[in-house]
Amino acid sequence: MRVIAHRGASGLAPENTLAAFRLALELGAKAVEFDVHQAADKELVVIHDEDLRRTAGRSEHIRDLSWQELCRFDVGSWFDPRFSGERVPRLDEVLDLVGGKAEVHLELKHGSRRYPGVEARLVGLLRRRRALKNCVLSSFEHKALSAVRELEPKARLGYLLGETRLEAAWAEMKELRAESLNLSRQQVDAGRVAAAHRRRLKVLVYTVDDAAEARRLKKLGVDGIFSDLPRLLEDAS
Ligand code: G3P
Ligand code: MG
Fold this sequence. Notes:
single chain; alpha/beta; TIM Barrel; binds SN-glycerol-3-phosphate; binds magnesium ion
C-alpha cells in the first residue's frame, strides 16, 4: 500500500512548505500530496486554505494577493518557531524539489469561487516541465477535472468523492478516465473498495495517521493512504 505524505510530512513540519516536502523526502516518502491555489497574478501556489488566517494569522485571501505579496508572510511559525521564515511556495518550486524523487499528488483547490482558466495554466506548466507522467491531479471540484481532461488526454486524474453520491460518481469517473477514487476515512468500506477495483480504479484514503488503521485499510485492499506521518506508517503498509 502506498503511503503518500499529506501536505508534505505535515505532522512534523508546517504543511505545504518546502520544509515539509524536504522532510518527507528525507523520510523516504515515495509520494507527496499538496494543495494548489491561484494568486492574483495567476501564479500557482501551494497552500491548503484560501486565506492566510490559520497559517499566517492574516485575513487576506490568496486570490487577492500576488505571489510577491504572498511570499512576505511567515507560514511556519504557527506550527513551531523553529520554522519561522517558511513561505508559501510556488508550484514550480515544489516541483523542483519533489519532481523526479517522488510521485506527485496535486490537489487543485478552488475555495469559495473557481479560479477562471486555472486548469489551462496548470496543464501548461506540467507540460512545460514534462511532469504529467509523474503527477496525479485531484480535486473535489469535478468540473475542474473535466476541464483538465478536455485539455490533456494524458493527464492522470484522482477523483475526490466529497459530497457526491457514489452512484453518480462511477459514471463521472468513467467519463473522466480517472485512475483513482479518493475517499475520506469515514467514506471507505470493503464494498466500495471492491466496487472500485471492479472498475479498475485505485482507492486512496485520507488522512490516516494511525498504524492500526493503516493495517486495517491494507486488509481492505486500499491502494494508498495520505498520511501526515509517512514514516510512521511505512511499516504498516
Ligand atoms: O487529497 C486528499 C486530501 O488532501 C483532501 O483533503 O482537506 O486535506 O486537502 P484536504
Ligand atoms: Mg489536499
